Amino acid sequence: MQDVKTFKPKIVAFCCNWCSYAGADLAGTNRLNYPADVKIIRVPCSCRVNPMFILRAFQRGADGVILCGCHPGDCHYTTGNYYARRRMTLLFSMLDYLGIEKERTRVEWVSAAEGAKFAQTMNEFVEAVTKLGENKRLEDLRCKK
Amino acid sequence: MQEMMIAKAKELLGSGAVNRVLGWKTGEFVYDITPAVFTSVEELEKDFVYNDFCGNNLSKYLIKESRKEGKILAFLKPCDTYSFNQLLKEHRILRDNVYVVGVPCEGKTDGETLKAKGVKGILGIRTEGDSFVVDTLYGEKTLAKADALPERCLSCKSKKHMVYDELLGPEGEVLDSHRFDMVEKIEKMTPDERFEFWRGELSRCIRCNACRNVCPACSCEKCVFDNDASGIAQKAAADSFEENMFHIIRAFHVAGRCTDCGECSRVCPQNIPLHLLNRKFIKDIDTFYGEYQAGEDTTTRAPLTNYDPGDVEPSIVYGKGGKK
Questions:
Q1: Do B94 and B30 share a structural domain?
Q2: Closest-CA distance of chain A to residue B180, Å
Q3: What global pTM score does this model have?
Q4: Chain B residues closer than 8 Å to A51 by CB
Q5: What is the CATH number of the domain that holds A68?
Q6: What DSSP string describes B32-77?
Q7: So what's the ipTM on this one?
């Protein structure tokens, strides 16, 4: 077990192309700090994210996975995030049911204008996952170096 | 009942209304029932059975059978009609090619359950009131149904046929089951206890894929678990991750479509209570998006292909259930 002080979590953030990815961009141009441990994966829409992607990220060594999309009602494709919202609610509830720490997963709606919210969300999320430590319950030893 | 069913099948075969009959026949052992298609009166008389071991859900076989030449007669139990309806909704079964005869079900037991009760040398079974009378090499044994039924039948959700062309026996009713009791019990555990509980169950998985193959909702021609690149296509569960992932995804892929027929748990050679995963999704859908029973009708939209602008946020999961 690594020392909590030196532990740097790996975070995967799925960001929708139209809102959250632009929000992350805005956070950058505004020189807002958020941890470099967050790896952003751009997806066309939050509903592009298959529940398998989330689990796959954990398999490949992520300690936390966050999904960011447009605010409900503002989806570029009109309704995509409504479907994503149902899917993720059920998936997270199932992960919790299996005893996997619920703080490791999160959904946050970040618009293109909310650079500050993006940075703040990521700071909070990284802090929460750092407290939890390494992902042990959903790890795949074959993928560990 | 068995005689009534054979008579009905003979009548329909004789009149040419159907050219095949989907039913059950005895396999290697008397408690080892296997689904079968009968094409002649002789076969029906020789092999057709309907007894307290006939738990197999026949609806899935109709996906392929309804695409063959001619009409098929299918005997469906209440459970099976839910699956049948759900498959109709998904346009998987061609309704015109199936003649559905609803048959009553008073709970189906299986060899495993009886053996666990210490019954050996099973030769036959019959129902007498609230008990099974099992004919064995060591004489007759009487077991109360409350003791000798698997969990899925003890918490039976309905004895009513959702769809049929003809009904043999009386029409049943939708029951007030307590099927979510165990799910609630698990939800009340701490996350650590839950994790230990599921590790204990899922670590027995041998990835035989029986749960997937038998499931009427799992009817994709190409399955994600057969994709070598998925990282979870191993036949033997290589480590704990793969067991978790397989079962989460399997349950997720049938979420909102699972009719809770319990076949997954029945066929599991390792006796993993897989229906508890499916029921968790059913329970969540009921609480979050309103009561929904898959297979009840063929018109409403499935919860995961539908939405409401006022749906709860995923953050609801953080606030609910279990001690920290």
A1: yes
A2: 13
A3: 0.90
A4: 248-249, 252
A5: 3.40.50
A6: -EEEEEE-SHHHHHHHEE-STT-----TTHHHHHTTSSS-EEEEE-
A7: 0.89
